[in-house]
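so im writing up the methods section and need the Metal-dependent hydrolase record in one place, dumping it here so i stop losing it
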Amino acid sequence: MAGTRKPVVEVRRSQRRRRTVSAYRDGERVVVLIPDQFSRAEESEWVDRMLARLAAREGRLARSDAELLARANRLIDLYLPGYATKAVPASVRWVTNQNGRWGSCTPADRSIRISHRVQEMPEWVIDYVLLHELAHLIVPSHNARFWALVGRYPKAERARGYLEGVAAASCAPLPT
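--- predicted struct ---
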């Protein structure tokens, strides 16, 4: 593929590894950790597989503010169609200074900020966090009307459980 450069790959074999394979980027090179008993064919297969996984992961991390705004507009159309003007934010952006919450909304200036920690989460969790903040543009508090709006998202409970699990694992505060 034009414009795509394959990174330098360092394969490290381990006698302690039995089945697991992992990879990480170390500067310009990718280190792939494989079991020592893998054949050359298995090594080649796993290197390609791990490079694809890293590329996919890094693609997810490259989510932009513009993509986030487009996602917000899509969620408004799907789950808040009766509030098409009221739920539209003035700005939506990823931020790196929110370590104690998943997102925040300032209804006064209609701005929404989503924590960078959410960027690596599944799409349906990102949608939930964003819809939660969009609902605050309609109902600023966490009352029954607010939760009814958030409940329009079919995976709301599942996403809340996911976030609670992440919070419990990292000792972060629970989502509100």
